[in-house]
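Exercise 7. Given the components listed, write out the predicted structure of the assembled complex. Treat all entries as one system.
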Amino acid sequence: MSMPFNADEVFEMAEQIERNGSKFYRAAAKKFPEVSKLLLDLAVMEDKHQKTFADMRAKLSGTEIQEPVFDPDGQAQMYLRVMADGHVFDIKADPAEKLADKDTPEEVLKMAIGAERDSIVFYAGLKDAVSDRAGKDKVEDIIKEEMGHIVILNQKLQDLE
Amino acid sequence: MTVTFNAFEVFEIAEQIERNGTDFYIRAAELFDDPKNSEMFLRLAEWERQHEQTFARMKQQLSEKDQQQSSPESDDLLPDPRVMAGLAVFGIRSHPEKELHGRQSRTDILRRAVEKEKDSIVFYHGLKEFVTAEADKEKIDDIIKEEMKHIVILDQSLKENE
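Answer.
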């Protein structure tokens, strides 16, 4: 039986996703100058999200850090476990490395849309796993912002196609 | 040019996502010859059918409200209809019959199912912006939670089939 995740570990995963996101956007901007402005803007937004998660993590009280997240039916833990084991969500993979086989801005925008989608799917679970006090609302705000990124990326994709 | 949607149309897409989900899982159940996996897919199909009914009821309520009011509430509900236009990319992809042609491996089918569940989670998060009543937001949140549960079930099956 796996150890349940605590809030500190869950926020650490969220920070990793945002770090991956920034790294991906900066590497993609370098490779595709024609869409670099948009990609660099998105990198800055992901930096801010990472800082938000880091702040939320820093504000966790001693009890919150150590105790498993509130999860009476165990569903949130099971979902988090699925995300952490890298089977259907690849949080640990370095997205910048996946750029190697992308040859056009269209391909990279589609990849970015997929990565944004996966982060929303993760944060949907994260939101259920953190208490109101630890910042459930902030997670919801970040989900909305990631949805906004998909809109921007999709718009750019339509312009290019 | 960006095509925008109103709340009514957005619920229609949600219904279609669930109809496609039901068809996908019924087809997947036919393609798996072991009872355990077939039963799992049929259970998931039934879940999606119930979601479709929930969305149909919410759409019906929306249309009844519109008829009672001089200005359609659905227009007031829209924070930015372009948001849903952007997210519609996760709405309807291809029809399950074209998607599942019987030549995929078991793991391909299961992975495809996970991707569909992820798409629906993102779409329904956008859908929440189109409703104002807290009770409706909660209903959509419940459906999102159930789709998350489906990912857990599918992941378990993936591990067993790999």
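Discussion: Residues 7-161 of chain B form a domain with the Ferritin fold (CATH 1.20.1260.10). The radius of gyration of chain B is 17 Å.
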